[in-house]
TrEMBL record:
One of its GO terms (molecular function) is magnesium ion binding. Its main location: cytoplasm. The gene is xylA. GO terms for biological process: D-xylose metabolic process. This is Xylose isomerase. InterPro entries: Xyl_isomerase-like_sf, Xylose_isom_bac, Xylose_isomerase. Binds 2 magnesium ions per subunit. Belongs to the xylose isomerase family. The keyword Metal-binding applies.
Amino acid sequence: MSSFFSGLDPVRYDPEATGIAFRHYDADKVVMGKPLKDHLRFAVAYWHSFAADGSDPFGAGTFGRPWFGDSMEDARQKADAAFEMFRILGQPFFCFHDHDVRPETNDLRENHKRLNEIADIFETKMSETGTGLLWGTANLFTHPRFMAGGATNPDPEVFAWSASTVRSCLEVTHRLKGENYVLWGGREGYESLLNTDMAQDLDHYGRFLSMVVEHKHKIGFTGQILVEPKPQEPSKHQYDHDVATVYGFLRRYGLEDEVKVNVEQGHAILAGHSFEHEIALARDLGILGSIDMNRNDYQSGWDTDQFPNNVPEVALAYYEILKGGGLAPGGTNFDAKLRRQSIDAEDLIAAHAGAMDICARGLMAAARMFEDDALEAPRRDRYAGWSDELGRAIMAEDATLSGIADRAEADGLSPAPKSGRQEILENIVSRYV
């Protein structure tokens, strides 16, 4: 057992507590027929919680965790600390990259051996704590070999290294009964067309993803394969820019029935969208798989990965999720990190507990709006004309542009503007949150 979190008790649901507690997240409270824990399916991100050192582009790391180092003993100590934190929080899942949990070497077989050694430890600790694996993934962006990407690298040797790394991570995820596997394309893009063959990059990326799907079926992994949309960071032009871009890519390579998306709030904002837009689009396209919950600093224009604290934003995101029937087998992963001045173990617990409360408040508000028909009734009213005779005629299979145009002229149509009632709807949302 790690001593890093000594003195910190398990976080309990206590609306009247003054210290660290859940004031809104009652895991077993039933909402819309399911306990909150089954709606939210919280996961802790191994990388930001246990591998981030608090550094930024202008300053060295500030966290100084006792497990920071490049030895397997450090990795084992990190695992002890991680599962001690999971015991304190009681969240059902965690997520990891291979690079987070074991030291990196320049030997593929050694990397895989080390990952499996840590997976041995994970298996025991997962059994002891009841913590499951929401998803695993491979880090194909940190090491200099990936400076031009992994699957889209112009060097086929890097593609082959990436294939071996992903195979190992996918097999370990399967072994640990992970419910999803994510491909996070941090550098799958380009910085300049002067040295890039974009068409070839996309073909390589499509072949890589097809190989991953093929291997999933070969080993009997029944979880979802997810791509995480991410725009312009760190690459300038990333091929998985947003949900719409990813869907177009999946359709081009015949993967739309095999691969879904893991949508992150911070990435949605960087792409110029709202989080709820990306979730709703993914849902309507049939590719919503899971979410990363965080927020950006809207003044910085950068992916700051802060813990969520905005209930209205979170409520609108979960509203779109509830409309689609929920997240499972996906979940809510906190891809969020402490600020570099928040250096204590207590800060890490408080950040997650507070974020879990924000999500619970948001989901419960979304559920009340959904059950009260507060937003759907006005939406149906706005589109009611499409259920009338003219609307049905327009959408009929035998309708033509000329036919509809002739009808409009014969009927002497002169449509009057109708209010979209946006402010009224915003006021409705405010009453729930």
